[in-house]
Amino acid sequence: MSRILVCAAYTPYPPAGGGRADIWRRIQAFTELGHSVMLVHQFDPAGPHVPTSEHLAEMDQVLQARFTYPVQHGPRRVIRQATQLLRRPWGVTRALPTVAESQELQEAVRKFRPEVIWMDGPWLGGTATRLATAHGLPIAYRSHNVEHVYLRRQASATPSRRNQLMWRLATVGLKRYELRLMGSAQRVLDISLDDLAFWKQEGVKNARWLPPLPELALTGPPTQVVSSDVLFVGGLRLPNNVGGVRWLINEVLPEVHKARPEVTVSVVGSTPLPDLAAELAANPAVRTYFNVPSVYPYLFGGKVLVNPVSVGSGVQLKMVDMLMTEAPIVTRTQGTRGLPAECLAQCSVSDSVEGFATAILRSLESPGVDRAARERSRQPFTVAAVGEAIAGLA
Question: Is 300 left (phi over 0), alpha (psi -120 to 50) or beta?
Fold first, then answer.
């Protein structure tokens, strides 16, 4: 079995939100397959996901080793990021550890003796490539999105001028950097079939599809569920999710209420923006569940599962988790991106307010699904696929 060094741009535990859940579930899969894992990750001490001592202790129950370091703030770091934009994207320079931290990290890696580096996205690319060179290690690169496209779309989705500027600044030089990392990696594992096709057109030759893992691949179904009429699951800080929830509540739900005024919408999500939380609390037809340990009791209790998000890239993990249930799924087109045909056939798809509302009403009236077809749609999402992705690299 292998000793795997995972480099992630943020704390993956608790696994709230698709990106964190994708990383943490794969780490769990590695250990379930018998591999030893060391995690290198940063966190923003001014952000919403500062790990607590309890979170770190939970991670250490799974990990053999861990190196955690904070993102640096202040004018010196900003100047450093700006002066290095021609060499590295803004977010990559931001993620570089200090000199002292780098020395400590090198020693920790020497003690762990990894055989392969698993790089989750481009943001720790500077650190991961340095470690690969210093220790003679192969790299497996996990692509979560076409990041330069994803960030531009997020910039378009946020109403904040400041956030628009920051999202767009993060894209400077990013495509070139993504291609460089992929070109130097021994293997590229893309989350999305659509994104995989994009990168192959850009000349990436060593890439294959690795879908995200649903929670059900690692645990059994929940023993207790939380019932709801219409259910949305997603992180509530990203502009695309925030916009999708507002579209669902403010535009689609009134159309549903014309036929079924008693219908309620449950919103399950992490770290909601304060103004969004206030909006949802003010609507008597909305039930909110924030920062829950697992979304599965809510997913398995929903009569109709919805994805109203219209902006994004990669594969939305919420869609994979929805497929593990026996409930009908209503989504906008974006939710189907990157998934195989068997999965798309399990969804009612509409991008219009009227069509989305009609699909919800139809699903409430006739909630049954083709269980055999639903089971076939789940076949790619296994722990075994993670094992195949890492095989032969060490």
Answer: alpha
CA torsion sign, 369 to 372 to 378 to 383?
positive
H/E element, 39: strand 36-43
Structure-token match 């993956």, residue found: 12
List CB contacts of 251: < 8 A, sequence separation 6 or more.
353
Residue 384's SS3 state is helix
Q: Are 11 and 48 in contact (CB under 8 A)?
A: no
| β-pairing verdict for 228-233 and 3-8 | unpaired
Peptide bond into 14 cis (omega under 30): yes
Contact (Cβ atoms closer than 8 angstroms) between residue 170 and residue 9 = no
Question: Residue 32: which of 62, 56, 60, 7 has the closest Cα?
Answer: 62
Q: Are strands 228-233 and 265-269 parallel, antiparallel or unpaired?
A: parallel
Inter-CA distances, 385 with 12, 23, 189, 389, Å = 20, 14, 11, 6
DSSP state of 248: I
**In the structure, what pLDDT confidence band is assigned to residue 155 with cuts at 50, 70 and 90?**
confident
- What number of CA atoms fall less than 13 Å from residue 324's CA on the CB side? 26
Q: How far is CA 182 from CA 20, 185, 382, in A?
A: 21, 5, 24
Q: What's the confidence (pLDDT) of residue 10?
A: 87
Give dist(CA 248, CA 229) in Å, integer: 14
Cβ–Cβ < 8 Å for 212, 18: yes
Instruction: Compute φ and ψ for 46, nearest 5 degrees.
Output: -100, 5
pTM: 0.89
Contact between 139 and 132 (Cβ < 8 Å): yes
